[in-house]
Amino acid sequence: MFTYTINQETELRLLEVRHAEELFQLTDSSRESLRKWLPWIDYTKTAEDSKGFIEGTLKQFSSNDGFQAGIWYKGELAGVVGLHKIDWSNRSTSIGYWLGDAFQGKGLMTQACQAVIDYCFHELKLKRIEIRAATGNDKSLAIPTRLGFKKEGCLEKSELLYGEYVDHIVFGLINES
Predict the structure, then answer these.
(1) What is the pTM of this model?
(2) Consecutive H or E run containing 64
């Protein structure tokens, strides 16, 4: 299983079915803030829904098509970071992430994304990583900027979120080694 230690307090671990209740509780406790930017929130109504998500991510991992890892801070599940999929022919991927309300403002997501970048470039030998975030989602937009990604452009009306289209800012990072 995938595990990546960030520091003494924080690690990334592949989500497992046994984490379904904890993942659901974290999602539910942050539902209002997460719903503004994540289209799947309204479809996550029970721990069984979280279990289905985890089962799908385990298939993703076993197919060598990326992963979704829990961000564990001081033994508690704080959020999720992972790869949407891996384009092996072009050696590229994109990172997605979210953090529970109680864990924001601690630098956890920046650290988690840096760990994923290191893993992608050094272990998987990928060439390109992309992050997309909706305009107005200032917390998510700050992550790639902090990590040295280059702002590449804006995709207008890129995502339908609860009846409204939002634009996405696209950021890219190239492995120069």
Answers:
(1) 0.95
(2) none
Q: Is 52 helix (H, G, I), strand (E, B) or coil?
A: helix
Domain boundaries, the chain: 3-127
- Residue-wise pLDDT for 26-84, tens only, equals 999 999 999 999 999 999 999 999 999 999 999 999 999 999 999 999 999 999 999 99
- Cα 125 to Cα 155: distance, rounded to the nearest angstrom: 27
d(CA 59, CA 16): 11
How far, in Å, CA of 64 to CA of 125, rounded? 13
> Under CATH, which number does the domain 3-127 receive?
3.40.630.30
Tokens of 131: 């992050």
**pLDDT of amino acid 1:** 60
- For the chain, list the strands marked E by DSSP: 3-5, 10-14, 68-73, 76-87, 92-99, 128-134, 150-161, 164-174
Integer angstrom CA distances of residue 129 from 61, 66, 141, 159, 175: 18, 12, 15, 20, 8
Kind of pairing, strands 92-99 and 128-134?
A: parallel
